[in-house]
Amino acid sequence: MSNPPRTSDEIRDAFISFFKERGHVLLPPWPLVPIGDPTSMFTSAGMQQFKPQFMGEEPPAAPRVVTVQRCFRTTDIEEVGDLSHLTAFEMLGNFSFGDYFKREAIRWAWELLTDVYRLDPSRLHATIYLDDDDSYGFWREVGLPDDHIHRRDEDLNYWFSFPKDTPGASGPCGPDSEIYYDLDPSRDPAEARLYTGPDGRPAGVGYSDRFLEIWNLVFMQLYQHPDGRRTSLPAQNIDTGSGLERVAMVLQGKRSVFETDIFLPILAEAQAVVGVDYLGGAATELQAYAIRAMAEHCRAATLLIGDGVVPSNEGRGYVLRRVIRRAIYFARKVGVREPFTHRLAAAAIGRLGGYYPHLVENQAFIQRALSAEEERFTRTLEAGTHRLEDLLERLRAAGASTIPGDEAFTLYDTFGLPVELTREIAAAEGFDLDDAGFHAALEAQRARARQQGAFLKGEVSPVIQQLGDDHSNFVGYTHTEADAAVVAILRGGTLADLVTEGQEAELVLSTTPFYPEGGGQVGDRGNIVTPSGVFLVEDTQASGGAIVHRGRVVEGEIRASQRATATVDLHWRRGAARNHTGTHILHAALRAVLGTHVRQQGSLVTPDRLRFDFTHLEQTPREALAEVQQLANEKVRHDLEVQWRTTGYRQAIEAGALAFFGDKYGSEVRVVEIRENSHVFSAELCGGTHVHHTGQIGFIHIIREGAVAAGTRRIEAVTGRAAETYLLEQQDRLLRIAERLNTSPAEVEDRIDALQSELERLRKQAEQLARVQAAALAEGLVAGAERVGEAALVVARVDALSQDVLRDVADRLRGRLKSALVILAADIEGRPAFLAAATPDLVARGVHAGTIIRAVAQAAGGGGGGRPDLAQAGAKDPSRIDAALAEGRRLGLEALSG
Fold first, then answer.
1. Adjacent-strand bridge partners of 66
2. Whose CA, among 52, 95, 489, 777, lies 20 to 30 Å from 841?
3. Average pLDDT, the chain
4. How far apart, in whole angstroms, are the C-alpha atoms of residue 531 and residue 512?
5. For the sheet containing 700-709, what is the strand order?
6. Which portions of this protein are annotated as coiled-coil regions (predicted)?
7. 568, 476 Cβ separation under 8 angstroms
8. At a CB cut-off of 8 Å and minimum separation 6, what does 340 contact?
9. What pLDDT does residue 38 have?
10. 645 φψ region: left (φ > 0), alpha (ψ -120 to 50), beta (else)
């Protein structure tokens, strides 16, 4: 008998081999972003990719399947750093879709654990649902003693594919059987059966630190209806999940997942960053917690970025940002000030890259993304900390000892300062923090976000839902004109029998060639003609399962149930098609030039232009954009065929087609593909309209590229006639510029360079003249300085060209007079400008230039301020300069006399 697996790689391979030998097909894992399932933020379980199969919505790839699924869960983020909690983990799973059931699942789990892993059978326990006598019998069949089988109620041993406490929720469900490993069999045997859970009930295993759950076998056999009834599913299914990290902990004889080979290389790098021998036991409790948090969070961030998530302020990007910043926060708590996340990412990729080669391929991008976020958060911490220090100073002056919750929330929400850090700094300064107020402000913001989201998304019209399914048959991929019947007329959200000339309405047709807005492409426009009238379609939308044509009657009247001819505006449709195919080509070209980390994040396709957002960390160099445009137009010139086909979602993804975050896909999807010979240049899941050959696009011209958010860029472009028009306008503009510069277009740059050189020469000459002017002005003012005790007071209106001249005059006066308060005014291009300056000895006596100049400017209807030694201000009415200076003289005498 071969040796049992020990390393995590060996465990992974052993699990796969065991189930492949038993007829299971190995399927690739989903990315951590569940593409095609917008209801979930992250892939959090191995079964997630099989929801359609379990629901009976599409056939399985095979009746028996095995996977190794990387997962991410947000529930335990705040606990990471202890000895057990993780956000990212790998789930080993075997699945049956109507094939085998409880007996085989239990027998094979037992065989793998005892024959392959060679675990001591006496240290294994199983839990079952209260009345699941079948599972009890099958566990007894394999040899598990009665006192190692524990019955538990629905709260503990039942699996639901939906939030079970939500009224009206429905979906597949069923009892499960969890397998536990006894970490300390030397303890009281009665403890295994009689241990009481937090709610006071006998709970069997699972609550104490003695037992570790290593596998869950879910027997998915029922469907719960909205009214709570449960009926049998058409097929009995198996869904299992075994955490690789926990199995490695058991097989390697460790007391924590962090002691396994999975984390050791990352922890070794983290301890080097902190500068303490964590693995040798020399770290303090705080250092140890920080090192584990740094290691886990950087590993999780590596996996998320590797699957296309980038740090941002919303959705998945916000969770990623939170994970990264929590790692940085704990690193700073133990004295780390140098960038480190890229180092830990390299260690994580070194450990995971063998099984997940995409991490190695994208290593440079992953490390850049982490470093950019670390640099950004460091700046945020500095700005937020200064803001907090100012707040503490104000509170201290007011005699307060508690930071208000709304102030703490502002620091968190606006300035990015973690509330933990606010609390820590406050405590060091003797302040408490109003936690209740903070959480109240946080919840208020969430409520506003929910309200706004509901408003933006709108609600499905119940009227449209009443129409049934016999409508909106879309034929627009092959036709731009179709005969149809008017199924419904909607005015103000209600059904109408008639709409007359000049009135706005929404029409639903039995059949339509009009493409409804979706996938970034705007809805079609055109006409709907009936025997009694003409309806101008100004927009087409999908709503409540219907395709809704929005517009107005421009001739006669339209009646419900009339026959109609629906005709799409060809100019509108062809422009949108050119630009939609153009987005696919540009997307593929960007991935070819910048790297496969580029993923489209959103798009807008109109007949006139296109734009789309994509993941990339820095500004795209001009040379790279030129290369992208050149590659895109090469594909246009080659006049490649644009093909589309319908296939299964899984088959499309496995064949390399790109899908997009947040989009929901059914079991059947449409793949738009551009090939050159046998090479696939672009393949995307897309429901939009496209040209038939790339040559129909004519030309693609990139107008601009810029930032949308951290890690997200936006590109805008035009195609076809719009590109031609744009380039002609640019050429015309260049010719006009050349004429104004009295040169040829080819020599414009040289002419501009010459003008800039001349401007620089004149600027330096102006600076020299200003210095001469300042020296002359200062010399004249020294003689007229007013003495107040040992100090001099200069209050004067001067003829200065700029604020710089005012500052230069003030500096010269302070240098000549040694102890002086200077108040100057000038009319600069029709606007009053004021400046006050005080020498250090006067500042030490309490003279404050900022306070004085603020009052001076107010006397002229303006405002300003500044430091005690130098301040400036402005106003609008030059006629009030003398009055303002009179006020300045009064204040100056008062300040120096005091």
1. 26, 94
2. 777
3. 88
4. 17
5. 600-605, 610-615, 712-719, 700-709
6. 745-779
7. yes
8. 270, 273, 294, 331, 374
9. 66
10. beta
Q: Output the CA–CA distances (angstroms, integers) from residue 355 to 12, 70, 90, 95, 552, in the order listed.
A: 9, 11, 11, 21, 59
Beta bridge mates, 702: 717
pLDDT digits (tens, 9 = 90+) for 610-640: 999 998 988 999 999 999 999 999 999 999 9
Tokens standing for residue 134: 């079948």
Contact 508, 547 (CB under 8 A): yes
Q: Is 403 exposed, middle or buried (0-12, 13-18, 19+ CB in 10 A)?
A: buried
| Residue 365, number of CB atoms within 10 A of its CB | 20
Whats the size of the chain, residue-wise? 898
Q: What's the pLDDT score for residue 454?
A: 35
898 token code pair? 């005091």
| 3-class secondary structure, 811 | helix
Distance CA 304, CA 310 (A): 8
d(CA 846, CA 551): 72
Q: Which two tokens stand for residue 738?
A: 């050349």
716 backbone dihedrals φ, ψ, rounded to 5°: -125, 140
Q: How many Å apart are CA 372 and CA 376, to the nearest integer?
A: 6
CA–CA gap between residue 356 and residue 351 (Å, rounded): 10
Q: Are 266 and 344 in contact (CB under 8 A)?
A: yes
Per-residue model confidence (pLDDT) at position 295: 96
pLDDT of residue 294: 96
* CA-wise closest residue to 219 among 209, 205, 233: 233
In the numeric block, the tokens 């008998």 are attached to 1
Q: Which two tokens stand for residue 361?
A: 């391929």
Q: CA torsion 80→82→88→90, rounded to 10°?
A: -170
Question: Residue 483: CB partners within 8 Å, gap ≥ 6?
Answer: 511, 563, 564, 565, 566
Q: Which of 707, 725, 724, 705 is nearest to 715 (CA)?
A: 705
pLDDT number for residue 2: 74
Q: Say what the pTM is.
A: 0.73
Closest CA to 514 of 574, 581, 569, 575: 569
User: At 510, which amino acid appears?
Assistant: S
d(CA 65, CA 351): 26
Rounded CA-CA distance 407/412 in Å is 9
pLDDT for the residue 233: 83
Q: How far is CA 117 from CA 252, 393, 665, in A?
A: 11, 62, 39
Question: How far is 814 from 829, CA to CA, in rounded Å?
Answer: 26
Bridge partners (DSSP) listed for residue 701: 718
Rounded Cα gap, residues 856 and 829, in angstroms: 19
Say whether 679 counts as a known binding-site residue.
Answer: no
Distance CA 94, CA 20 (A): 10
Other residues' Cβ atoms within 10 Å of the Cβ of residue 770? 17
Low-confidence ranges of the chain (pLDDT < 50): 194-197, 200-202, 206-207, 449-459
Question: Does 690 belong to an annotated binding site?
Answer: yes
SS (H, E, C) 325-370: HHHHHHHHHCCCCCCCHHHHHHHHHHHHCCCCHHHHHCHHHHHHHH
Residue 82: DSSP 8-state = S
pLDDT tens digit sequence for 310-320? 888 778 888 89
pLDDT digits (tens, 9 = 90+) for 883-892: 999 999 999 9
Do the annotations mark residue 686 as ligand-binding? yes
Would you state the structure tokens that stand for residue 357, as one six-digit string?
């080669």
**Residue at 845: amino acid letter:** R
The enclosing H or E element of 821 equals strand 820-828
Give the Cα separation of 691 and 699 in Å (integer). 13
CA 613 to CA 861: how far, in whole Å?
Answer: 47
Q: Which residues contact 785 (CB under 8 A, 6 or more apart)?
A: 792, 793, 794, 813, 817, 820
